[in-house]
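A favour, since you know our structure tokens better than I do. Would you make up a two-line entry for one protein for me to read? Write everything out right here, beneath this request.
=====
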Amino acid sequence: MIIDAHTHLEISPDDSHPNLEQRVKDLKRFMKEAGISKAVIITLAPFFKNVLNHTQMLDLISKEKDLYLVGTISITQGKKKDLQELDYLLKQKKIVAIKLYLGYEAFLPMDKKCFPIYDLCEKYDVPVIFHTGDTYRGKIPVKYAHPLNLDELAIKRPNLKIIMAHCGNPWVEDAILVIGRNKNVYGDISGWTWGSFNNRDSKFLRPTFERILGWCGADKILFGTDLCCNHPSVYSSIQKEYVNFVKSFKLSKEEEELIFHKNAQRLFKI
């Protein structure tokens, strides 16, 4: 079994593929072609343009038993009702985690505004996922997305399960330190490439993966791609590329199972 722990059903102003139902069909087709059984879809925060809210996302995937949703909230713009909505969705098991967008908003993990969200994650025993590393747009200082920012949070809240999206790329060495020294921190390898692994980045990405595996262990790594379906001509092969990338390493059966599905199953309870 393979679980893609980081996907999107995005909308953008230049969306070349606006049919949402078709977008879900494309995701399922890409998954089948790559041998992926389940996918975790991460909701974009409301400060992004033209995004679907939680209700719309859940309606879109309601008939898909192998698709799971991650909720989100804006730290700088969120209201009490948004937090209450997350509480309800977690209680009803409609979402499997909460995503916070470091670097897309100017806040740090130890900001007190985040504490009620962490309380919810601990209450329902679900992970909090943080964007870390480079951002798609550069209006907010990228320092907010540095993986070292998560170290203090991990230490002070040892019962909080933390997933570092993208393993802090390009600050991967710092991410490895935080993941390796904290039992409650994990990293997904999504968003490392939006095309082929056989490009100029491949010389960097292969030793990067080996470094994460060697320092942190397979039990701390989640398979994820960062697939989005608003430009299928660009992203149609990314999941297959990712699967082949991981399988190209000499991993034991146990390591493959942990990375491909067991870690995600345990953290997201799917």
User: Anything to note?
Assistant: Residues 121 and 176 are 23 Å apart (CA to CA). The longest strand covers residues 3-8. The chain has ten helices and nine strands.
